[in-house]
Amino acid sequence: MRPILKSNKLDDVCYEIRGPAMEKARQMEEEGHKIIKLNIGNLAVFGFDPPDEIVHDMIRNMHGAAGYTDSKGMFAPRKAVMHYTQEKNINGVTIEDIYLGNGASELIVMAMNGLLNNGDEVLVPAPDYPLWTAAVSLSGGNPVHYICDEQAGWMPDVDDMRRKITANTKAIVVINPNNPTGALYPKEVLLDIIELARQHQLIVLADEIYDKTLYDGEEHISMASLADDVLFITLNGLSKNYRSCGYRAGWMVVSGEKRHAKDYIDGLNMLASMRLCANAPGQFAIQTALGGYQSINDLVGPGGRLLKQRDLAHKLLTDIPGVTCVKPKAALYMFPRLDPVMYPIADDQQFACELLSEEKVLIVQGTGFNWIAPDHFRLVFLPNQDDLGDACGRIARFLEGYRRRHGRG
Q1: Where is coiled-coil annotated (predicted)?
Q2: HEC states along the chain?
Q3: pLDDT in the model for residue 4
Q4: For helices 52-60 and 280-291, what crossing angle results, to 10°?
Q5: How many CB atoms lie within 10 A of CB 32?
Q6: How confident is the model over 28-80, as pLDDT tens digits?
Q7: What is the pLDDT of residues 289-344, one digit of tens each?
Q8: Is 12's pLDDT higher than 80?
Q9: pTM for the structure as a whole
Q10: Which residues of 178-197 are buried (b: 16+ CB within 10 A; e: fewer)?
Q11: What does the angle CA 232 – CA 111 – CA 252 come to, to the nearest 5 degrees?
Q12: For 268-275, what is the mean pLDDT?
């Protein structure tokens, strides 16, 4: 019989966070092995529960969640998001500028589907959250990766961005706070990127899903608060700040220079209608979350569990010979570097699989985040301190053996 092939639109798409190593881990679990999974920011499995008031509010409203809602979402949660944009100093946002989605992920794909023609280019960071690169490719566009500079604390290289803008460039993606590096961008960097967008009439797509997961007293600045003459698409949701990954409750806000974007906005409205609506139970969680007690502050502040785990993971990793890591200022991840002299890695996917086989620890290789060299990996620091210590100890043991096998011990 004729083989049934996947679409060629998937040729340039990868999502290594749930890639081959994840499949190998699943097989090992079926064989009875216990795997320490440091590959995905799935908070619930590490004992980070959503706030009780969110859960209770969803239960109370479940009887009203059976029907379709407005294609953009219910009025009350959209109004709560509107108030949140006001708190973030984003001007001119109305209810009609807000789209609720099944997580920010659905809305990222929607934003790209509505914008791109075949051959259009989008500037995407390297390293990136790989859904962005995938969404551009699936929408017929070409992702063009600009470098974030590790030596500068993983700040975007604005000069590299400038060099990569062409007549086909339509938009710039900015992930701030950043996944996978944990970098948080200062106002000066954001203004430089906005100036590029202004000069070249580009849309700015701002992924701000970790905007409350901040350490050491850091503050987040929403890009859309810094200009009114550029079109901004800002994406956020409950998954991380409110430990509600499975509720799939996200939002997208259109702001700034909307006058010349009517046709694009019509396209977003069409796509929102085609998917009928976001899930209603998740929508019920949004107003309660944004208006309630912000328990994330307890987790990231002095003595907080996430803060302590970040500090522990950073110390344990950087104590390993040949491992360096910019300490994250935000989010849930670290993106350590392996000295290529001490660790001559040719294929970092194979490296991740070897670590999994030998030590039962699952991480994601750096090239899975569209990084340019096989010398980084990402891990989440969500396990409790004992499990985190065990995981980092296993990584240290594996790396010691790797150095010895390659004559670098």
Answers
A1: none
A2: CCCCCCCHHHCCCCCHHHCHHHHHHHHHHHCCCCCEECCCCCHHHHCCCCCHHHHHHHHHCHHHCCCCCCCCCCHHHHHHHHHHHHHCCCCCCCHHHEEEEEHHHHHHHHHHHHHCCCCCEEEEEECCCHHHHHHHHHCCCEEEEEEEEHHHCCEECHHHHHHHCCCCEEEEEEECCCCCCCCCCCHHHHHHHHHHHHHHCCEEEEECCCCCCECCCCCCCCHHHCCCCCEEEEEEECCCCCCCHHHCEEEEEEEECCHHHHHHHHHHHHHHHHCCCCCHHHHHHHHHHHHCCCCHHHHHCCCCHHHHHHHHHHHHHHCCCCEECCCCCECCEECCEECCCCCCCCCHHHHHHHHHHHHCEECEEHHHHCCCCCCEEEEECCCCHHHHHHHHHHHHHHHHHHHHHCCCC
A3: 87
A4: 140
A5: 6
A6: 999 999 999 999 999 999 999 999 999 999 999 999 999 999 999 999 999 99
A7: 999 999 999 999 999 999 999 999 999 999 999 999 999 999 999 999 999 999 99
A8: no
A9: 0.94
A10: bbbbbbbbeeebbebbbebb
A11: 60
A12: 96
CA dist list (Å): 239 to 23, 147, 250, 337? 24, 27, 8, 27
Take residue 295 and report the two structure tokens written for it. 């328990």
Judge whether 317 and 305 are in contact, CB under 8 Å.
Answer: no
Q: The tokens 């959250």 sit on which residue? A: 129
* pLDDT per residue as tens digits for the range 238-264: 999 999 999 999 999 999 999 999 999
For 108, the token pair is 């990222």
Residue type, 154: W
Asked if 120 contacts 168 with a C-beta cutoff of 8 angstroms, the reply is yes
Amino acid at 199: Q
**End-to-end CA gap in the chain:** 53
Using a 10 angstrom Cβ sphere, with 0-12 exposed, 13-18 middle and 19 or more buried, the burial of residue 108 is buried
Instruction: Please tell me whether the peptide bond between 51 and the residue prior to it is cis, using omega within 30 degrees of 0.
Output: no
CA dihedral sign of residues 335, 341, 346, 352: negative
What is the pLDDT at residue 1? 87
Sequence-distant (≥ 6) Cβ neighbours of residue 386 within 8 angstroms: none
Tokens representing residue 87 in the block:
């708190």
